Amino acid sequence: MTFEELGLSQKVLAAVQTSGYTTPTPIQAQAIPPALQGRDILGIAQTGTGKTAAFTLPMLSRLESGRARARVPRTLILEPTRELAAQVEESFAKYGKNHRLNVALLIGGVSFGDQETKIMRGADVLIATPGRLLDFFDRGKLLLTGIEILVIDEADRMLDMGFIPDIERVCKLVPFTRQTLFFSATMPPEITRLTEAFLHNPIRCEVSRAATTAVTIRQILVASRGHADKRETLRNLIRSAENFKNAIIFCNRKRDVAILHRSLVKHGFSAGALHGDMDQLARMASLDAFKNGDVSLIVCSDVAARGLDIPDVSHVFNFDVPTHSEDYVHRIGRTGRAGRSGVALTIVTEDDMKYVDQIQSLIGKAIDWEGPGFDALPPPMETSRPQERRGERGQRRDRGRRPAASEREAPIRRQAAVEREAPVSIGRPRGGRPRLEEESFRSPACAAPTDRRERGERRPRRHEDDGPPVVGLGDHVPSFLLRPVALKPAKVGEE
Ligand code: AMP
What we know:
There is one protein chain. By secondary structure, the protein is α/β, with parallel strands linked by helices. It folds into two domains: about 5-205, Rossmann fold (3-Layer(aba) Sandwich), CATH 3.40.50; about 215-370, Rossmann fold (3-Layer(aba) Sandwich), CATH 3.40.50. The protein is built from 21 helices and 14 strands. The protein has a seven-stranded parallel beta sheet with strand order 3-4-2-5-6-1-7, with helices on both faces. Residues about 380-475 and about 490-495 have low confidence and may be disordered.
């Protein structure tokens, strides 16, 4: 099938041609013709399938007739996150370059003033997150009675984020006769109920079984002893990653995003962060730095990273196993896009195994393990060397690395040994457990001293290296201190 056969307008076809697309993706081929006829669409498709163009292109064609009025937008696209909304705005700029349409973006974290000006001018397309949209509506700055097309994108994410009551409210505020284009990667019961209530005889377009993962993504599980060891495991994985270009690293909690980001920067990695507590400008700046290649790692929470279209991401690292298995599918879908190959590595502790089982049953296959399994992992330092429990700082720094025999004899040499810290090998053919390699390995994400200077980054200070700090003389006791000392008997009242 060609784009010409879909029934799109000449202006849209010209923009598609400029984009370099030659064939519609399956979701586009299925959804565009009925969408152009004004039918409701229920699209079950994950990001990366071309679903944004599946709703943007027919909308553009249909918007060619008619004009927007002040405060009364003609079409409304609801997105769960600000980044996704901004991304859809970019798609309208790209595919709508031959149209003279007013596109307004209503997202939180940005001043009301500019947004209001755009709404006042009359928006042909209003792209919004539910909270800011209803805020505008409740302040009387916006009417939803002119909506001809309503798009609800990433509905399952809206559910996760607690937006369903807002969506229901919006669906009741827009005219009954509007067209609805509804997209979700998965169809949990709450979403099915929503579609039954608000879609009118929709055409169902399903491009792949809900929650399948792309075949272009190589999925790997890596065992780690516990939460405290995961940062070191991650650093090793990044350093030893084959064909590394850049990576998105996912944490389950916003707080951990900030902690992990600081830790990576401290260890000389070129990293940014993206989570919901950052202000919008900082979020945009982080994302741009990653997209432009100014940083090669970005640590994210699920909400911030959902659906981001960064076409060329070589690796995804799950620093935490997601507790909702659908999130796993979305996370790893950030790599292996548009037919490219990608690698998704998930760091797993024994406590995470129940979530791993859920993920494997959702995606319908077992994920390969690499590196030593839980049984083969070296015991944590604090259990093997009780005397090391004295200082939390030293103890924390040394976890995650099996002490060499010589180190047990001479702890003061530990610092140097850490420099040879063994990366877990990845990208190795299956069969036989990969060895821990002793060779040092540099990937582009691990800034070398010169790279660091060029990028204006400071060199990690000695005490920030992986090795434990040696306090005083370490475990070495000079012999003069071991000489018996004759003590005077204490007088009564003295301590
Ligand atoms: P989406 O699923 O909307 O996030 O799109 C994923 C990526 O596919 C985006 O980078 C689009 O630019 C790209 N894309 C969309 N439609 C096509 C197409 N027909 N051919 C090739 N790439 C496409």
